[in-house]
């Protein structure tokens, strides 16, 4: 993972001076709206070779006046069960709990599904979800209802790519260094 991040940083820095780097208009945040719920930058990650699952991530915001709950996720690429996961810190490291849904609090702040917090896992995926693969997922919320959105398989969140480009455009080497993963 670190090799990919450093390769991306090097590629950005080698493309020319910081002033010459332009932000791709297609790299803007992708936002889906269902009533007061905004779903921002949906992306997926294959759970690995031999594992028939895909992890789903996105940011969301609930600007309504009542909390909501994400209770179901379905996709044509998955024939198995879908589960909502919560990664918890335990004395022995990270533990993963299966939960019955993801609470969507009322807040102007964004909440992000990540591999170190809440995420959705599609089970029964027939083949690995390769990089760049796009597929629809229908999300069901208790209050807001259903929405079908498109996920794209990536190595990391689209937000990280935007942060890298913005720091490179500013020539901010310290910000680029801060984006690399913590050493263990």
In a nutshell, what does this entry contain?
With 184 residues, the protein is of the alpha+beta class.
Description of the molecule:
- The protein has 184 residues and is α+β, with helices and mostly antiparallel strands.
- The protein has a single domain, classed as Sandwich (Immunoglobulin-like), CATH 2.60.40.1890.
- The protein is 17% helix and 43% strand.
- It has 3 helices and 11 strands; from the N terminus they run αβββββββββββαα.
- The chain has helices at residues 2-14, 158-170, 173-178; strands at residues 31-34, 37-46, 53-62, 68-74, 82-90, 93-99, 102-104, 107-112, 118-123, 134-141, 145-153.
- Strands 1, 2, 3, 4, 5, 6, 7, 8, 9, 10 and 11 form an 11-stranded mixed beta sheet that branches.
- The longest helix is centred in the N-terminal third of the chain and has 13 residues, at 2-14.
- The protein starts with a helix and ends in a 6-residue tail after the last helix.
- The relative contact order is 0.24.
